[in-house]
TrEMBL record:
PANTHER family registered for this protein in UniProt: UPF0060 MEMBRANE PROTEIN YNFA
Source organism of this protein record: Niveispirillum lacus
Identification of the protein by name: Uncharacterized protein
Matches recorded under NCBIfam families: PRK02237.1
Keywords: Cell membrane, Membrane, Transmembrane, Transmembrane helix
A cellular-component GO term for this protein: plasma membrane
Span of the signal peptide: none
Cited SUPFAM superfamilies: Multidrug resistance efflux transporter EmrE
Residues that span the membrane, as ranges: 6-26, 33-50, 62-80, 87-106
Localization per Swiss-Prot or TrEMBL: Cell membrane
Annotated Pfam families: UPF0060 (PF02694)
Family the entry assigns: Belongs to the UPF0060 family.
Amino acid sequence: MAGGTALLYIVAAFAEIAGCFAFWAWMRDGRSALWLVPGMASLALFAWVLTRVPVDAAGRAFAAYGGVYIAASLTWLWLVEGQKPDRWDIAGAALCLAGAATILWGPRGA
């Protein structure tokens, strides 16, 4: 992925994951409802950043984002939750990133 586009997708992914994790912490881990405040802000940041991706159609931006989200989720799993992804996780993420790149930069007919 081109540098700027990749960075936008990565920032969006971690903002979305952090926002969803705040809800997870509240609902599943019994944390305070105050976790929802930064969680909502993080989800708003995610949506805003994703609109900055230089793609001609929202659906294409969202589809390509999916691959980046999967890879970022496995990074979160490792760095935040302390569970190292296995070879199947890594292989799956690599396939998803290849799919995202194909969606973004595959040749389009006129």
